[in-house]
Amino acid sequence: MATTVSITAVDTLRSIGATATLSASVKDQRDQPMPEATITWQTSNANVLAVNDGGVATAVGNGAAIVTARAGTASATRQVHVLQRPVSLTMIAPDTIRSLGATMQVQLTAKDAGGAAISTPVVDWSSTNNAIATVSSFGLAAAQDNGSVFIRVKSGALSDSAVLTVRQRASPTTSTVTVAMPMLLIGDTVRVTMVARDALDNPIKTGDLAGSITATAQAGASGLTEPPTIGAGNGPFTADFVGTGTGTPRTVRGTLNGIQVFAAPTLRVLAFTRIVANSDDAGTCGILDTADLYCWGEQNAGMRGRGVGAPAVSDPTPTLVSGGHQWASVAPEHNYMCGLTAAGKLYCWGAPGEGQLGNGIGGPLIFAPAATLPESTFTAISAHQSGGACAITTAMNTVCWGFGYAGRLGNGADTNVVRPVGVNGALKLVAVAATSQSGCGITEASAAKCWGHWMTLGAATPDTCTGPVACAKAPVTVVGGLTWKPIIVNNAEQACAIATSDKTYCWGGAAGPAELSGAPVFTSLATGNLDQCGLTAAGAMYCWGRNYSGRFGPVDFNQYVTTPVAIVSGFAFSQISLGRQHSCGITTSGGAYCWGSNTKGELGDRSTNTTTSPVRVRLFMP
User: Fold this and answer.
1) CATH number for the domain harbouring residue 287
2) Which residue of 116, 252, 340, 511 has the lowest C-beta tally within 10 Å?
3) 363 compared with 620, residue with greater pLDDT
4) Which of 16, 50, 82 is where one domain is finished?
5) Closest by alpha carbon to 261, among 222, 214, 217, 207?
6) Per-residue pLDDT tens over the stretch 17-53
7) Under 8 Å between Cβ of 205 and 146
């Protein structure tokens, strides 16, 4: 009976399909050979090694297997390894890598002596220039910079190599087209910049790019110059667009080597529709054709409406009034503002003062537009200097609020109110001009009415108000029997209006209207602190009164001018406004210009330099 079995076998087979004959010897209990004993063979892993009945082992796959030889109840085992050894190495030339930081598996075919491919050969990898591309221990190449290198592979005496090229390609998805500012005014210059990037967001460094930046054109679109694209090689590429006309947004497109970049920002040229200079503070506000409201200069008491927590320091940089409202008109005055939205809703903000916000409370400061009399809708609003405002409802009823001095509210009293009160007399006004001391208006029947302090009544004073001061606590008719267009201004010392005859008249005190000597035909009027101006149909501006800070121009500096003088500006204006010591106007092309005092940046040119010549309001561009 067999008691021992021993195996003689190779340790390692080096190629798939290689064979080796295993032998086993059997001995009995007396330690005598048993050459006639029957031996059976088994393998522990047929995926690595196969063994037939004759003990012939065949390599199937890399690994290790336990071979068992059995005779009766006796057996023996032996471990056999299959480990392919390459006899040939062939590298497949890799494709070009197109992004820095991108990786690529270098393809290698290694075969053993039987011609079988080795799936994971034991080899060494290297790059001839790691600054261009590195290669890992398992053949993963990583791009570092543009250029070409040899990737080498070695196993013993065997080796092969192939050229790997790194050359970035601009990606349309990661390359960028950016605008310095998506909105601009006529005359503004906006730079568009295109930066070429590869698919992994690295700037292109190949030096062979050609770029082009254009703005699409369609009917009704904003007017823009078609500038040349500046830049070559790696870029960046730039184009400086100048606004030439208002309209809808235009899409900006960029191409790199003829491939369109996906990023497509827009440019829109906007225009001012209204500008209002603060008659009692060094500030200005302007409304765009988007109905957005911007203010610049004075920032007392949150009067610029920037919201809670906004800087309280006055500065020359225009800022957007918060709240997202669509504005139609605005009346900025001492430490507060009120405005009407396109829907006719009234909002006020800033310092409550003597009830000048009309919100029913005396404090605290309001840093963003807050609704006043929200149940009503309005068509016009007017304020001058301080103390409150007056507004006309869509039903042509006039309400005033705030300071009640000298009967300026027109409600039959001379006390302050914190909510709007109706002006007596059911006037049905179509225009109103309010100040801190008085109010005037034009009725739908073309009559002029005034109330408040005697200085601008244009009629005898029927009342005596606290002070004492002569006043009219309710509206009185301006004497003279003239009929009027709905154009009237009031600076608390003098009121002016345009008659239906197209002549301009001014009045003060109890004296009736007097024709303004030397005045051309005006289509609109504006008033400041102690001065007034008129605008002709041709856009020419004429002014009279106190020439504060030379805003009439360099002539008669700070002098009082009684006859209208032409303001030589070089522009045709469509609307004008006078502040305390500065003036502003909107040109017929929609640009805004200001001149005069600039102590708080009220001119809007982002400086504090006083000038007698109009400077362009730089709303978006520094």
Assistant:
1) 2.130.10.30
2) 511
3) 620
4) 82
5) 214
6) 999 999 988 888 888 888 888 899 999 999 999 999 9
7) yes
Q: How far apart are CA 512 and CA 96, in angstroms?
A: 91
How many domains, the chain?
Answer: 4
Nearest partner of 459 among 435, 446, 443, 440, judged by Cα: 440
Write the DSSP string, 542-584: EEEEE-GGGTT-SSSTT-EEEEEEE---S--EEEEEE-SSEEE
Provide the domain limits for residue 264. 176-270
238/322 same-domain check: no
63 and 189 both lie in a single domain:
no
Strand spans (E) along 29-83: 40-43, 49-51, 56-59, 63-71, 74-82
Which residues pair with residue 158 across a beta bridge?
Answer: 155
Q: Residue 415: is it exposed, middle or buried by C-beta count within 10 angstroms (0-12/13-18/19+)?
A: middle
User: In 3D, which of 87, 74, 75, 79 has the Cα closest to residue 49?
Assistant: 79
**Residue 63 within any structural domain of the chain:** yes
Amino acid (1-letter code) at residue 177: V
Of the three residues 39, 63, 82, the one that is the final residue of a domain is 82
Measured between its terminal Cα atoms, the distance across the chain in Å is 107
Report if residue 520 sits inside a domain. Answer: yes
Summarize pLDDT for 11-20 with one digit per residue, the tens.
999 999 999 9
Sheet holding 573-578, edge to edge: 573-578, 582-587, 592-596, 611-616
Q: Which of 442, 438, 434 is nearest to 452 (CA)?
A: 438
